[in-house]
Specification:
65 residues; elongated
Length: 65
């Protein structure tokens, strides 16, 4: 099981609602106004980049300075 410190949990809790809003906006509204076909590879790339940046943010929140 993943054990997070208080600062790491705070970062994760702050990011998850923003991710949900962006997902709805991009996947629902973006499909209606876009001219291009839906691309699963772009969705996978966006998810991988999001995971990378969130992982870095959670790591840095747990580092003691």
């Amino acid at each position: 099981m993943l054990r997070l410190k208080a600062k790491q949990r705070a970062v994760l809790v702050a990011i998850l609602p923003e991710l949900a809003n962006l997902g709805v906006a991009g996947l629902v509204f973006g499909q209606g106004i876009g001219d291009r076909a839906f691309s699963w590879s772009l969705v996978a790339l966006a998810g991988a980049l999001w995971l990378l940046f969130v992982s870095i943010a959670i790591y840095l929140a747990g580092v003691k300075s």
